[in-house]
Amino acid sequence: MISVSALNRLARDVLESALPLMWVGGEISNLTRASSGHVYFTLKDANAQVRCTMWRNRAQLLAFRPENGMRVEARALVSLYEARGDYQLNVETLRPAGIGNLFEAFSRLKEKLAAEGLFDAALRRPLPRFPRGIALVTSPAAAALRDVLATLGRRSPHLRVILYPAPVQGPDAPQGLIQALMQAGQRAQADQTDLVLLVRGGGSIEDLWAFNDEALARAIRHCPLPVISGVGHETDFTIADFVADLRAATPTGAAELASAGFHAAQGDLVMLGQSLRRTIVRRLENLAQRIDRCALRLIHPCQQLKLSAAKLDTLSQRLKRGMRDTLRRDRQQHDHIALRLRNQRPRLTPLQQRLTALDARLKQSMRTQLHAQRQHVIALGTHLGHLDPTAVLARGYSITRDQDGNIIRSIQQVAAGDALSIELTDGFLDGVVRTRPG
């Protein structure tokens, strides 16, 4: 069993993971703008409807004001509001219905140029940190021009700006922008410009469509100067943004990127100035301390001689005391060693007595051992005599052997006619078996 909260959370996770971010078309109804800035509405068609939520950070970026009855296309993620269990769309952005074809054309061109490698990061040129001058491509009547000039005047007023006027909207805009870019590249050496700013203020996708032109994209890539694009608002993306060497979210952002080196250098100069002042102050303080120490060491020669004489007298007294103390310690050490030597002199009388006693014990022990060994040898001789077979023969016994030398212990070992050898105490006799008792 699971709780309702867990069930709704599981359903939300399944919806969000199973369905991708997508475009959904319909008509706005029941639109409500909360005081927090969030926008709530229903997106419907002839047969169905779905609740939608657009959070404040997304709603404030819209280029138009949505109203009830307006047909729109919403880029949204399917989700579930857990507290009520309501199925809804979390809307990322809105666009008026009917401009989907422009987005499709934009996507196709983007894929084509990407496949050709026009968007490769390896082709992007580094921006000069301290440009000599900036070539500004925009309309003289555009608000973007004022924003760029105001930003550059605030951050790097010394920087020279050359305006290359061009229309930024309408059917003639792409060709005008291309010509302005070509002129900026051709006059770069004469005008001493190192960077191009291609800027325009925000607007609808139709207003910005001139910057999605294929020929303009190729002109940007072949421009001899690096190009910063600052077209529209932060959420607006054009083909010019992808092919430019660097994209800025706004025209003001483009001016900030162009002057970033000078702006950072101002901060670096302030920090270096502060560091230099601290270094100079520390150096002066150290030198002042050295002067003070040197001043303390400056003494009149007469006074120096008196101090040296006093120091010499002190050292002489210390030397005399040291010699006396050394001689006294050496004498005490000599007496101590002599006393230890006398105490370590060997006493011979007890040692001689002990040696005599040990000699007597050794002789007695040897006599005792010799007597015991002699008795043991006598006993072994007696025992051997008892075991001597010749002694048995001397008592009248004999040993009878067959012709192979085997001792005859039974009559079963011989047969009639067998030769015998009989050993007596004083010699041998030969015999023959005549008969063998049955």
From TrEMBL:
EC number: 3.1.11.6
GO molecular function: exodeoxyribonuclease VII activity; nucleic acid binding
UniProt domain Exonuclease VII large subunit C-terminal: residue ranges: 118-429
Any one of the GO CC terms: exodeoxyribonuclease VII complex
Catalytic activity: Exonucleolytic cleavage in either 5'- to 3'- or 3'- to 5'-direction to yield nucleoside 5'-phosphates
Coiled coil: none
Chief location: cytoplasm
Annotated ranges, domain OB-fold nucleic acid binding: 2-94
Keyword Cytoplasm annotated: yes
Assigned keywords, A-Z: Cytoplasm, Exonuclease, Hydrolase, Nuclease
Role: Bidirectionally degrades single-stranded DNA into large acid-insoluble oligonucleotides, which are then degraded further into small acid-soluble oligonucleotides.
Family: Belongs to the XseA family.
Protein's name in the database: Exodeoxyribonuclease 7 large subunit
